[in-house]
Amino acid sequence: QSQSASTRRGALIVVEGLDRAGKSSQCEMLREYLSKGGNAVKYIRFPDRTTPIGQLIDSYLRGSANQDDHSIHLLFSANRWELAKSIEQDIASGTTVIVDRYSYSGAVYSAAKGNPTLSLDWAWLPEIGLPRPDICLFLSISAEEAAKRGGYGAERYENETMQTRVRELFRSLFGRQEDIAVIDAGKSLEEVSIDIQSVVADCIGRLDATGPLRT
Ligand code: T5A
Ligand code: NA
Predict the structure, then answer these.
(1) Which atom of ligand 1 is nearest to the CA of 106?
(2) Which residues are 14's β-sheet partners?
(3) CA angle 200, 205, 210 (to 5 degrees)
(4) Domain-wise residue ranges, the chain
């Protein structure tokens, strides 16, 4: 038993959702829950604004630099690729990795701009081959609930037109991506956390932890 325990991999858990759905709060609560359960856990978020590519993304989001739509899209993707090896290594060594936003945000926010040469299909291509999540928790919240959690901030994309398109595009992804669990994020922090815990416990229970990450 101890032999197989040493080769068990961690799970790759992605948390996605609209702005102010509670992703970061829930990632933190999930991290705590899994740690208490004796799991090695790591939390990462995209964009990772600390790398050189992340710094370019940060100035773009803050509005201090402009970028061609395709160019910034590829930088968001490159920001995931530059961490791909380290995610794979963590998972292989038995650490569960919780990721705050991933390829789904990547494809959806870029496609939501309505650029005629930047379709959802085009946007998805550079994501192919990245470590594939065991589960993606999509935190779903209505525009009304989101508004109660505070007005739009100053960053690019934090406006109503963009948010409405993002909402529609996320919904269209549910049809084509398996392994998305839609969570009602309009409930209290605690209630949402409990729903997430049960989906994650179920996913980890079904996981073939001696096999590799799915491709
Ligand atoms: N983007 C991102 C791309 O265009 N391409 C990409 O490839 C990627 C990865 C920055 C932007 O970049 C875009 C998408 C974004 O526009 P970000 O830094 O993740 O992405 O965005 P943030 O601003 O950090 O995150 P959000 O605004 O989306 O917030 P969260 O993480 O969903 O929400 P959270 O947990 O910070 O909570 C927000 C507020 O609501 C309260 C919290 O206390 C907090 O005040 N709250 C609740 N209140 C009541 N009930 C609940 N259940 C609550 N849950 C949270
Ligand atoms: Na966040």
Answers:
(1) 7
(2) 99, 136
(3) 115
(4) 2-206
134 Cβ closer than 6 Å to some ligand 1 atom: no
Which amino acid would we find at residue 139?
A: L
Q: What is the mean pLDDT of residues 136-160?
A: 87
Separation between Cα atoms, residue 141 and residue 143, nearest integer Å: 7
Q: In the CATH hierarchy, which fold is given to the domain comprising 2-206?
A: Rossmann fold (3.40.50)
pLDDT value at residue 202: 95
CB of 4 closer than 8 Å to CB of 87: no
Is 126 touching ligand 1 by the criterion CB < 6 Å? no
The complex's ipTM works out to 0.96
46-63 per-position pLDDT tens digit: 999 999 999 999 999 999
- Pairing status of strand 180-184 against strand 135-140: parallel
Specify the residue with its C-alpha closest to ligand 1, atom 38: 20
